[in-house]
Amino acid sequence: MNLFDKLYDDQENVKVRFVGFTTENVRYDFGIIYTNMFFGKPLVICMQTGRSTLLDPKDIEDLDYLQRIFRIETQAEAADLAEFFKTSLPQTPFETQYE
């Protein structure tokens, strides 16, 4: 009996960037994976908490989302993080992945 139906099993060589920085009150360490999967959104992983998300320019503007997904304490810290992502992540257009 087959317990699983495979949905995909792709391999690709990807660009990975590791970046650490500090703001006035907080240190951040991220791994950013640039891939052709996930509609062109980079996969962003917080190396301190292991929490991850796919981010596009609209997601970066949503400070509540950034605060929740990365467990950030204040809106000011979320705004600092959004500013970093605005300058660090590519402005990729939405790519249709499923028809």
Distance between the termini: 30 Å
Number of beta strands? 4
Main beta-sheet annotation: 4 strands, antiparallel
Q: What is the share of helical residues?
A: 25-40%
Q: Please tally the helical runs, counting DSSP H or I stretches of 4 or more residues.
A: 3
- Give the mean pLDDT: 88
Order of the strands making up the biggest sheet? 1-2-3-4
Gross geometry:
elongated
User: What is the chain-wise order of helices and strands?
Assistant: EEEEHHH
Give start-end ranges of low-pLDDT stretches. Answer: none
Coarse structural class? alpha+beta
Radius of gyration: 15 Å
- Approximately what portion of the residues adopt beta-strand conformation? 15-25%
Question: Could you characterize what this model shows?
Answer:
The protein has 3 helices and 4 strands; from the N terminus they run E-E-E-E-H-H-H. The radius of gyration is 15 Å and the shape is elongated. It has 99 residues and is of the alpha+beta class. A 4-stranded antiparallel sheet has the order 1-2-3-4, with no helix packed on it. The longest helix is centred in the C-terminal third of the chain and has 14 residues, at 75-88. The two termini are 30 Å apart. The mean pLDDT is 88.
